């Protein structure tokens, strides 16, 4: 049985982010046409504590000053692309972006700014590779273990 060729990438290690501090990470999407980016934020203190900012931007290089926001993928205080629902106070909050990379620039930058100190992590599954790897290890470089069945 052939399984889809997905490449998992840890975008942000679980990190405690201070109030209104922005944590960013840059993803190289070269060779892939689709990305699912999942941002995991620890339980909120109250139902009003949504991120001050959660957005994706794009650039041709990793120069952090050369990125521009991606329309439709900017949320937070004063943002009009999307609104947050009521955050969960008993379990972690998961925010997911499905991104068609075909019309995007090579590098995607994730920016997360919590309104209160929170543990934040992010992972990506890159898919629809231009060249499918011939072995599982190549498809999932950096993966500690791969179990298929």
Quick rundown:
The chain is an all-beta fold and 149 residues long.
Report on the architecture of this protein.
This protein is mainly β and 149 residues long. It has one domain: Jelly Rolls. The protein has one helix and eight strands, in the order E-E-E-E-E-E-E-E-H. The protein has one helix spanning 136-139, and strands at residues 7-17, 23-28, 32-41, 53-59, 68-76, 93-100, 107-113, 118-129. The strands form two sheets. A four-stranded antiparallel sheet has the order 1-8-3-6, with no helix packed on it. Strands 2-7-4-5 form a four-stranded antiparallel sheet, with no helix packed on it. The longest helix has 4 residues, at 136-139. It is globular, with a radius of gyration of 16 Å. The model has no long low-confidence stretch (mean pLDDT 85).
Essential attributes:
149 residues, single chain, 4-stranded antiparallel beta sheet, Jelly Rolls, 1 helix, globular, mainly beta
Distance between the termini: 9 Å
Largest sheet: 4 strands, antiparallel
What is the CA-atom radius of gyration, in angstroms? 16 Å
What is the count of distinct domains? Answer: 1
Binned strand content: over 45%
Indicate the multimeric state: single chain
Mean pLDDT: 85
Q: What is the CATH third-level topology name?
A: Jelly Rolls
What is the 3D form? globular
């Amino acid at each position: 049985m052939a399984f889809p060729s997905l490449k998992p990438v840890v975008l942000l290690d679980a990190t405690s982010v201070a109030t209104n501090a922005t944590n960013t990470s840059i993803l190289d999407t070269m060779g892939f046409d689709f990305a699912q980016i999942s941002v995991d934020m620890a339980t909120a203190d109250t139902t009003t504590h949504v991120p001050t900012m959660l957005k994706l931007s794009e650039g041709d290089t990793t120069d952090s000053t050369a990125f521009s926001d991606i329309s439709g993928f900017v949320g937070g205080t004063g943002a009009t692309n999307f609104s947050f629902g009521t955050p969960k106070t008993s379990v972690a909050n998961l925010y997911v972006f499905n991104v068609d990379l075909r019309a995007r620039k090579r590098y995607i930058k994730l920016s997360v700014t919590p309104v209160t100190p929170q543990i934040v992590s992010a992972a990506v599954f890159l898919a629809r590779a231009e060249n499918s790897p011939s072995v599982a290890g190549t498809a999932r470089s950096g993966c500690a273990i791969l179990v298929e069945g």
